[in-house]
Amino acid sequence: NHPPCYLGCGDRDLILSSTHTYEERLRAAGHRVRVHLYPGSTHGYFNFPEGDTKVQSQQDIVAFLSEIEEM
């Protein structure tokens, strides 16, 4: 049984299509998936030292983890 999965990706990420494919496969297999797309962001946005996208993605991840912790 696969745990709930969080996928965060920039909408300008070169692997965006792979993220969507992975999401589709997980859902098809019956797994719970949360996907967040970050407008204007490229691959590696999470590693940038500063920025609104990094802060928002951190908040989104914490919210997701809080939700699954309550399961």
What's the Cα radius of gyration? 13 Å
| Largest beta sheet: strand ordering | 1-2
What is the CA-CA span between the terminal residues? 15 Å
Number of strands: 2
Assembly state (oligomeric): single chain
For the report, how would you describe the main beta sheet?
2 strands, parallel
Average pLDDT figure: 92
| Low-confidence spans | none
Q: Helicity level, as a percent range?
A: 40-55%
- Helix and strand composition category: alpha+beta
Describe this structure in words.
- There is one protein chain.
- The protein is of the alpha+beta class.
- It contains 2 helices and 2 strands, in the order βαβα.
- A two-stranded parallel ribbon has the order 1-2.
- Strand 1, helix 1 and strand 2 form a beta-alpha-beta unit.
- The longest helix has 18 residues.
- The mean pLDDT is 92.
Describe this structure in a few short sentences.
By secondary structure, this protein is of the alpha+beta class. Helix content is 44%, strand content 17%. A two-stranded parallel sheet has the order 1-2.
